[in-house]
Amino acid sequence: MMNINTAVENRNQENTQKKRSQWFEVWRRLRKNPIGMVGLFIVLALILTAIFADIISPAHYVEYLGRVPAYEYQDLRNRNAFPSAEHPFGTDNFGRDIFDRVVHGSRISLQIGFVVVGISMIVGVIMGTVAGYYSKITDSIIMRIVDILLAIPNILLAISIAAALGAGLINVMIAVGIGYVPFFARQVRSSVLSVREQEFIEAARAIGAGDVRIMFRHILPNCMAPIIVRATMGMALAILSAAALSFIGLGIEPPIPEWGAMLSEGRRFIRDHWPSTVFPGLAIALVVFGLNMLGDGLRDALDPRLKQ
Amino acid sequence: MTEKLLEVKNLKKYFKTAKGLLHAVDDINFSINKGETLGLVGESGCGKSTTGRVVLRLLEASGGEVLFNGEDILQYNKKQMSAFRENAQIVFQDPFASLNPRMSVSEIIAEPFIINKKSMSKTERYQKVKKLMETVGLASRLENTYPHELDGGRRQRIGIARALALNPSFIVQDEPVSALDVSIQAQILNLMEDLQKEFGLTYLFISHDLSVIKHVSNNIAVMYLGKIVEMTDFSSIFKDPLHPYTKALLSAIPIPNVDDDLERILLEGDVPSPIAPPPGCRFYGRCFMRKDICKDVTPELLQVSEGRYCACHVVHGQDG
Q1: Total number of domains constituting chain A
Q2: What is the pLDDT of residues B237-253, one digit of tens each?
Q3: What is the pLDDT of residue B262?
Q4: A150 is in which domain, residue-wise?
Q5: ipTM
Q6: Three-class secondary structure of residue B300 per DSSP
Q7: For the stretch A215-246, what's the b/e string if a residue is b when 16 or more beta carbons lie within 10 angstroms of its beta carbon?
Q8: CATH for A293
Q9: Over the stretch B63-112, which tens digit does the pLDDT of each residue have?
Q10: Of A9, A11, A202, the CB nearest to B58
Q11: Does A110 reside within a domain?
């Protein structure tokens, strides 16, 4: 006993272990996953494109009009052009450079992805946590609301909300966001139900922790992994839904370069001019693909059962 | 006469199940003197842990009284409860499950202060955490590690530090060593003994392991299917067990001597279901001393001699 104690004391003198965050562990595992890394690369590329859109596709200066954003600049002599050195993705029927519009469209898509997931995640996580923690009547009431939301097809719900609130970027985000609340609420509720029964929750109660503290300090951090995965994949779905809404004309109004809206505009010329639909379509596909792969990679990296 | 810190009277805890009312704790009485340890022993499923939780109101009792310093804590309101929580703590069985895997060691130990001593400054809190880690024998370099990086013994020390944080006078030890290696068990038990002496703690020590109970307890209560069948001081129970269940239990302790002739009492049958138990002695179906009266009349926990209580018709000589 004495020896053990002195040994412990001796080691005490050595440097205190650095606080290594658990995110570092997640990163270490994600790095080993090629699919996840490809996804991460695509998503990072999207974020960088969005940040540096003005540098990649700088604004034009036009006589009498002054500064015109790249995505609005019209080269009227060059309408429906096919890809060339000057216009790598060609131009649309207004003579706008499709490459510039796709680049600037990344800002809109990213904004939609984050805001929609933000709305649905915050609302869904709170609903799911409260439902899972209190159970019984509270649970029933919340989950029936969720069931009602789930019963309405997502795109129909978004259409009705967009129709009620009117078109526009913010309304689209609210509409799509509400549609995704049930998925978060259900996911979180089921995680909470399993974490709630663990002994450390009882331990927290024994030291006098209140309900709010137990929910947000003890239960939620232990439910984060599935939430993060769902958020990543939800972002992909949100971008798709927003594009679909724009496509049917309830989403973003032109001339904002939203990818779905671009598809919708290009549809009329699809037989004669393929670049105006193909490039925005590819952009959507690539981003959704990237987000889904990142989500898959994160799911593996966050799963403690796979801890090596 | 020493003062009673905790007194439990007619405590009941029933759980509603689909099949009926499960009598987890059925009308038990016991008391613990200040600075002493009551060992609560019994096989799994007999209601020991439930008792520990009901006493701390982690589970709400179905009936009875829990007197702590003479006051019935079952009647406490929220504010009184938070004061009581500072006074009575619990150490859990499974050091793997009872620590939040997302919190570092120092965060776990600091939490009682964050909740109950809101005015305490950060540096003061940090000092307290350091002190506690030292008290329970945790190297200070471990403060930023997470529970999954530590072994069972160290984790249990974290649990003990957390329980000690608010200077409680009473701690429920819910099988604190049964998840640990035998070598670590001894360390933890010694630590608890030292802490008891140092801080004058009172323990309710729950275990299924008689040799552990023997090591730590002043008094021992034996539980069977929600009832206390025998309660006595620790020496006489080993020398001269009264209740047939206690006899059978004690005969199951292995003796490290091959020449000794073991007279094992092998019980027939299985523990009956605690859901809607029949009247009469709970042990009736398995008892080797049973008489007719045992089938219909529930035996009371009665005093046999000074400090010794037993719930058995045969021991009390009531043949009916």
Answers
A1: 1
A2: 877 888 888 888 888 77
A3: 64
A4: 38-53+97-306
A5: 0.81
A6: coil
A7: bebbbbebbbbbbbbbbbbbbbbbbbbbbbbb
A8: 1.10.3720.10
A9: 888 888 888 888 888 888 888 888 889 998 888 888 888 888 888 898 88
A10: A202
A11: yes
Chain B within 8 Å of A208 (Cβ-Cβ)? Answer: yes
Question: What tokens appear for A211 in the block?
Answer: 């309900």
Using CA atoms, how far apart are residues A84 and A275, in angstroms rounded to an integer?
11
Contact residues for A148 (Cβ-Cβ < 8 A; gap 6+): none
Q: Is A85 exposed, middle or buried (CB count within 10 Å of its CB: 0-12, 13-18, 19+)?
A: exposed
What domains can be seen in chain B, in order of their start residue?
4-316 (3.40.50.300)
In angstroms, rounded to a whole number, what is the distance separating the alpha carbons of residues B61 and B127? 38
Kindly calculate the radius of gyration of chain B based on its CA atoms and give it in whole angstroms: 21
Residue A229 lies in a domain: yes
The minimum CA-CA distance between B34 and chain A, rounded to whole Å, is 21
Q: B89 to chain A, minimum CA–CA distance in Å?
A: 6
More confident residue, B198 or A83: B198
Does A47 map to a domain?
Answer: yes
Q: Do A5 and B102 touch (CB under 8 A)?
A: no
The answer to whether B102 contacts A1, with C-beta atoms less than 8 Å apart, is: no
Of B78, B77, B28, which is closest to residue B204 (Cα–Cα)? B28
Surface of A (211-270) touching B: CB under 8 A = 213, 218, 221-222
User: Does A121 map to a domain?
Assistant: yes
Q: Counting every residue, how long is chain B?
A: 320
